[in-house]
Design goal:
Layout lengths: L9 E2 L4 E3 L4 E3 L7 E3 L14 E4 L1 H10 L8 E3 L5 E4 L2 E7 L7 E7 L2 E5 L21 E6 L11 H5 L8 E5 L5 H12 L4 E4 L1 H13 L7 E2 L2 H5 L5 E5 L1 H6 L6 E6 L11 E3 L7 H11 L3 E7 L2 H6 L5 E4 L4
Parallel strand pairs: 3-4, 4-5, 5-6, 10-11, 11-18, 12-15, 12-16, 13-14, 13-15, 16-17, 18-19
Antiparallel strand pairs: 1-2, 2-3, 7-8, 8-9, 9-10
Helix pairs in contact: 1-4
GO molecular function: exonuclease activity
Protein name: Exonuclease
Pfam family, one: Lactamase_B_2
């Protein structure tokens, strides 16, 4: 059995660095070679000499960064293998948002799996997570706490049914807004979805690149004031927070975080991350020899697997 290199992937001030392939994953600052797991702003940045990501991820990035140079973009299809240094790399769907990828890195016979952000819950708007076995599971731990259990998403959406009012629904612009639109289209067909102008370009890209046609209209004030009170208006967080005094609407914010449910009229626990039971299930599928945690608190996982499996935070430079 090949030896696991404890420093195969480390965290430094730029991002997650692999010296054996001389590349970064999800670098926050410009790097020579950067693998981008998905297009959310805390993972996808520009200024890199070479970038590696899925076609959908680059489509979202080009929408946000119009001047991104085409010559820097290296599009990678799911399942294809490419090599940086002496490391073989393969992307597999992560199920987080459209185009999101897990990054499998193979070096000297050892497989290291960087999950990026991922989810197991059904989502018709993006690729479903693909199970991958690896020696080291490098997992996000955003909700790696036994007290966290994400409820059934359909039951959460049905909380919006039969409300005698228009609803202002706060959510993230990329991924969450499109998932909510699809769920409302399917489960609440009597409701009309209006989207904030900052979201409309991403909705269009989902209709171009995605798997589920989205039915929606661009927000206008007259539509919210006139006619039937069957509107659900999707707004990004900053807009939602600025409308705290909005009248004649019910307020909700779709998130797995309890703190974002406070002072709203409707709680809506919808997350695009794995919860505690999801992570435990995925560990069983990956069957790793070690778990390295990132993006959160791994102490509960370390305690749970004590004496069974090595669990630690990723090393820092």
């Amino acid at each position: 059995m090949s030896e696991i290199l404890e420093d195969f992937l480390i965290k430094d001030d730029i991002g997650y660095y692999c010296r054996y392939g001389d590349f970064y994953i999800d670098a926050l600052y410009p790097a020579a070679k950067n693998i981008i797991s998905h297009a959310h702003g805390d993972h996808a940045t520009t200024g890199h000499q070479k970038m590696y990501a899925t076609a959908a991820t680059f489509a979202f990035m080009k929408n946000k960064f119009p001047k991104i140079p085409e010559m820097a973009l290296n599009t990678v299809a799911f399942g294809d293998v490419f090599t940086l240094g002496n490391v073989d790399i393969t992307f597999f769907p992560a199920g987080h948002i459209l185009g999101s990828a897990q990054v499998l890195m193979t070096y000297q016979g050892v497989k290291y799996l960087y999950t990026g952000d991922y989810k197991l819950q059904e989502d018709a708007t993006c690729e479903r997570l693909v199970l991958v076995q690896a020696d080291v599971l490098i997992t996000e731990s955003t909700f790696a706490n036994p007290t966290v259990s994400h409820p059934d998403v359909k039951n959460e959406i049905l909380k919006l049914k039969d409300k005698p009012s228009n609803i202002m629904l706060g959510c993230y612009t990329l991924g969450k807004a499109q998932r909510l639109t699809a769920l409302i289209n399917d489960l609440l067909p009597e409701r009309e979805v209006l989207v904030h102008h900052n979201m409309s370009a991403v909705h269009k890209l989902y209709n171009e690149w995605g798997y589920k046609p989205l039915r929606y209209s661009l927000y206008n004030r007259k539509a919210m004031k006139d006619g039937h009170t069957n509107k659900i208006y999707l707004v990004p967080p900053l807009t939602f927070n600025s409308y705290f005094k909005a009248k004649n609407v019910l307020k909700a914010f779709a998130s797995g975080w309890e703190r974002l449910q406070k002072q709203n009229d409707i709680t809506l626990y919808i997350s695009d991350h794995v919860d505690w039971e999801d992570i435990l299930w995925y560990v069983e599928q990956v069957h790793p020899r070690e778990i390295w945690t990132i993006h959160g608190d791994g102490r509960s996982l370390k305690k749970h697997f004590e004496g069974i499996l090595t669990v630690r935070d990723i090393l820092s430079a």
